[in-house]
Amino acid sequence: SGDWSSDVCSSDLIKIFTRNVPDENMIQLNYSASYRSASTFNTFYKGSSGKFDKFGFDGGERALPSDFPKSLNGFYGEDLSAVGKMLPDNWSITKSDAIPDQRFSFLIARPFNLGKVKAGNITSINYGVLNESRIRTIANFNDYNEDLKKSDPIYIYKDTLSYAKVNLGVISNWSFILNKDHKLEFHNLLNQSGVNQTLIREGANYEAGSYFRNYAVRYNQRMFYTGQVSGEHMFNEQKTKLSWMAGLNTGVTKDPDFRRVQTNRPLETPEALFSIVTGSTASLDQLGRFYSELYENNYSGNISGEHKLNFGKSSFQPVVKAGVLYEKRSRTFDARWMSYIKSLSDNFDYSLLNQPVNVALSNENINPVTGFKLSEGTNPYDSYSNSSELNAAYAGVMLPFTSKISFSGGARYEKYLMTQNTKNELKKELKTELETEFILPSANVTFNMNAKTLIRAAYFKSLNRPEFREIELYSYFDFIRNEVLLGNPDLKTAEVHNADMRFEYYPSTGELISGGVFYKKFNNPIEKYALPGTGGGTRSFQFDNAQSAESYGVETEVRKSLQNLEAFSFLSKLSFTVNASYILSNVNLGEKAVMQDDNRPMMGQSPYMVNAGVFYNDQKKQLQVSLMYNIIGKRLFAIGGDKSQPDIYEMPRHLTDLSITKGFGKHIEVKLGVKDLFNNKFCYMQDVNQDGDFDDEDQTIESYRTGSYFTAGISYRY
Question: What is the reported pTM?
Answer without folding.
Answer: 0.90
